[in-house]
Amino acid sequence: MNGKTILVTGGTAGIGRALAQALMVKGAKVIITGRDRARVEQAAAAMGCAGYVADSADSAQLTQLAAALQQDHIRLDGLVLNAGVFYPDAVTATTEEAFDLTMAINTKGPFITLQQLQPLLNNPSSVVFVSSIAVAKAFPNAAVYAASKAAFEAIVRVANLEFAPFGIRINSIRPGVTATDIQGKAGMSAEQQAELFGAMSGTALGRVMTPEDQIGAIEFLLSDQSLAMRSAVVEVDGGFLL
Fold it and tell me: Hey, which of 5, 25, 33, 228 has its CA 20 to 30 A from 187?
């Protein structure tokens, strides 16, 4: 990681922030993005990295992000498409608004980000998409979330063919249940979160995962050790799918 410049979307909290901190310790120059200016500025100042405001649901902001990076003469060795949302609800209860917002942030957002930042990616460079085990295993109330992640994994396969001449490789990780603020943002109460996390004691790992548990796989995919990998999926689930 030493000397590499890596941008992490959704880097103000959870997996994104933990990853940004770990990459900096290993000598990388890290850039984070987020949709809330105050949180971006706070996180960037706390970690000592660069921060840009870019809402994954706003294509204009993603275009502005690319322009700002180019103006600042920034070239990227790595891009982590981490920003995402989860609005749980049954198929019959999901609103059109929730469907559209989930797809806008989890599918269209990384698509536009990748499209706009492709000219700034070095040859070689690595893109890592933070997907979910919901693509491989059905969970109640997660149909739209699972579909949004699966849709971008399909985009990854095609993008790998189109971006090959530029030396850009794209791979994914599928985290299992990981304790971050996404559960609270999804509307889960403290009691519901405790019940969910407690249920993870039955996995091979024996506990709920933390953001730090996801870092190693992402770092590997960002490193030169993954140069021959394309559209690989690394499941980091603590043994949940066994």
Answer: 33
